[in-house]
Specification:
Blueprint: E1 7-12, E2 17-19, E3 36-43, E4 48-55, E5 58-61, E6 66-67, H1 70-73, E7 80-82, E8 91-98, E9 102-112, E10 116-118, E11 122-126, E12 130-140, E13 146-153, E14 156-159, E15 166-170, E16 174-175, E17 181-190, E18 198-206, E19 214-223, H2 232-248, H3 252-261, E20 267-268, E21 277-278, E22 283-290, E23 297-306, E24 320-324, E25 329-334, E26 337-344, E27 353-361, E28 364-372, E29 374-375, E30 380-386, E31 395-405, E32 411-416, E33 421-422, E34 426-432, E35 438-447, E36 456-462, E37 471-477
Parallel strand pairs: 1-9, 11-19, 21-29
Antiparallel strand pairs: 2-7, 3-4, 3-8, 4-5, 6-7, 8-9, 10-12, 12-17, 13-14, 13-18, 15-17, 16-17, 18-19, 20-22, 22-26, 23-24, 23-27, 25-26, 27-28, 30-31, 31-35, 32-33, 32-36, 34-35, 36-37
Length: about 475
């Protein structure tokens, strides 16, 4: 006999779980040698393994911490205990008992790992500058997770990223060695976004392990620009100079002191850019300068090209040829804090272009460089089938087409709606066209069983042009009615 339905069970990583398996009561005349028990598991990769066996009166466990209570077997209970559950324990478990009557029962075990969210409690942004706050989310499973940022000013809360004063960047999830995932999200705010002295920045995480969104907040305040610090030796030297100047010259002293203290160079930030720069979409490159007046500054922007792109080439040396873009840039100033902005609108052929910002101040130059990656989202995502109307007990071919994207690095995965990953997949491509855009096709084949009616297959496409969480799902609903 067998149980009619598959029991479903969800547990957290690190806990213990018991998978139930009850069968008809044993006759007192039955010997241990006539009883056979087998627990097997099919994991998320559709690989089958034996977890526990009991045969000829001897027990053998293939997984550390897997136990069937021998005394409870006398009460017709062959439940399997799993201790310290890990993500790798997730799968479909089936117990098979021969008494000699054959009895089977199945349990679908879902393993969850609650994320750990790390965010500083306090942070400060220097007046006139930007501050980046990082939210680290680690050790979660399954991979699906959403991160959003909110700005709370008093009783008023708004979604971050809608204003030019803040921008959000969330990286793709990283697969950890223990099969959990980690992700990093950051928000960058300008000091002018802080009202009434301080605001609260909220990192909100949504995951299957939370009954409601989980919030962590950081208090952001504005601080005055730091003054240059001088060592004790420097202070002693300055004191000596002042004493000498007072003795020798009252008129020349102030002039010399002014020249000495004005040697502190301005602060020049690295070039910032959006998380994703799309082809043919205007994007801003920014360089922030602090500690100088606007009259003291001159900011120049250059596009750096390889000498291979120019008419004059050298066989032995690869040189960079600069193109002056300074007239296309603008300078936004607030007292002694300035942001130079260069707006670029790039084609795919300009991917990996280097840009240079050169700040000239008080006879010195300060140079910053950045490399820009250009992205193009796929313009076509679709699953087609052969035949168009599936038929039971016949071959069904599903083809996922992803077309016109850049760069070429792409990853495709197939899933059923029961969470089972399809492992036998054939990929074609990526291949490019004359416009340097890429396309890829992915195909799976299956023989339609009657129980597959109304099943849903998902083609998940991972590409760097997609905003967080970094993938898109394409669905195919099997319908034999057309």
């Amino acid at each position: 006999s067998s149980a009619e339905t598959t029991r479903k069970l969800s547990v957290l990583v690190g806990t213990d779980v018991t998978l139930s398996c009850l069968f008809d009561k044993l006759s007192k005349l039955v010997e241990w040698s006539t009883l056979t028990i087998e627990w097997n598991m099919v994991d998320k990769h559709a690989e089958k393994s034996i977890v526990y066996t009991f045969e000829d009166g001897r027990a053998h466990g293939n997984r550390d911490g897997s136990v069937v209570d021998k005394m409870r077997l006398l009460e017709s209970d062959a439940s399997l205990q799993l201790r310290n559950v890990t993500v790798g324990d997730e799968g479909l478990y089936t117990c098979r008992i021969i008494t000699p009557v054959v009895y089977t029962e199945a349990t679908s075990l879902e393993v969850l790992a609650r994320p750990s969210v790390l965010l500083p409690e306090k942070a400060a942004v220097t007046e006139g500058e930007e501050k980046t706050i990082q939210c680290d989310i680690t050790g979660f499973y399954p991979e699906k997770l959403a991160v959003t940022w909110h700005i709370q000013n008093g009783s008023h809360t708004v979604h971050a990223g809608v204003s030019h004063l803040s921008r959000v960047c969330t990286e793709m999830a990283i697969h950890n060695p223990d099969d959990t995932y980690s992700i990093r999200s950051s928000i960058t705010l300008h000091s002018s976004a802080v009202k009434d002295g301080e605001i609260h920045i909220i990192c909100q995480v949504e995951h299957q392990t939370y009954s409601q969104p989980y919030n962590r907040s950081v208090t952001l305040t504005v601080q005055a620009p730091s003054q240059p610090l001088y060592s004790a030796v420097t202070l002693i030297s300055v004191t000596s100079v002042i004493s000498l100047l007072l003795v020798t010259s009252v008129i020349g002293g102030p002039l010399l002191l002014y020249r000495y203290f004005c040697k502190a160079p301005p602060s020049v930030s690295e070039i910032s850019q959006p998380c994703i720069i799309y082809a043919q979409v205007p994007s801003d490159l920014k360089c922030t300068i602090r500690g100088a007046t606007q009259r003291e500054l001159k900011v120049k922007w250059f596009r750096l090209r390889s000498s291979a792109d120019s008419v004059v080439q050298s066989e032995s040396v690869s040189l960079l040829v600069s193109e002056d873009l300074s007239e296309q840039a603008c300078l936004q100033s607030d007292d002694r804090h300035h942001t130079s902005v260069l707006t670029v609108c790039l084609a795919v052929t300009e991917d990996l272009t280097k840009y240079q910002c050169v700040v000239l101040c008080r006879g010195k130059s300060f140079s910053r460089e950045t490399t820009v990656r250009v992205k193009v989202e796929p313009s076509f995502l679709q699953i087609s089938s052969v035949p168009q109307i599936p038929k039971a007990e016949r071959l069904l071919v599903l083809c996922c087409r992803v077309e016109n994207f850049y760069p070429q690095d792409v990853d495709l995965e197939w899933f059923r709606n029961d969470g089972e990953q399809v492992c036998t997949v054939t990929h074609f491509g990526p291949f490019s066209d004359h416009s340097r855009l890429y396309s890829v096709w992915s195909k799976i084949q299956l023989v339609m069983a009657r129980e597959d009616e109304r099943a849903v297959y998902t083609c998940r496409v991972y590409h760097s042009s997609f905003p967080p969480p970094g993938f898109r799902d394409v669905l195919y609903h099997i319908n034999t009615q057309g």
